[in-house]
Design goal:
122 residues, 42% helix, 5 strands, 5-stranded parallel β-sheet
């Protein structure tokens, strides 16, 4: 019986993980290393964070990073920038309705290669 290997087949994810590891080494940014380790785990272990949790733990104007999907349950009271793999339509509506910003993890990495001021929320 052949041994089964656990490799990602999604080219976006494999490229993102490689980019995060490279940036972590170049900029000594531990946040990107932690994110790469989260994304290397099976996708069933990815975070699913509701807007209500973001509202509870984020400050006004803060940048939040979700290694998974952002869901639209809950109420958002302040402006935040959120980066995630994917967003539900209701989550995008609630975040952008308060002048917030929804972006992919790739966009966040390009604008902030050192990872300063980023909070990971699982």
């Amino acid at each position: 019986m052949a041994k089964r290997t656990n490799q990602k087949t999604n080219p976006r994810l494999t490229h993102l993980i490689a980019t995060l590891k490279e940036l972590a080494r170049e900029n000594d940014a531990k946040v990107w290393r932690a994110l790469a380790q989260n994304l290397e785990s099976p996708s069933r272990n990815y975070a699913e964070v509701n807007i209500g949790k973001i509202n509870r733990y984020a400050q006004d104007g803060e940048t939040i990073l979700v290694p998974g999907k952002v869901l639209g349950s809950g109420v958002l009271n302040h402006k935040v920038s959120v980066a995630a793999l994917t967003f539900s339509e209701s989550a995008v509506g609630k975040i952008t309705g308060l002048e917030g910003n929804c972006m992919t993890i790739e966009e966040l990495v390009q604008t902030n290669p050192k990872g300063s001021g980023v909070r990971i929320l699982r």
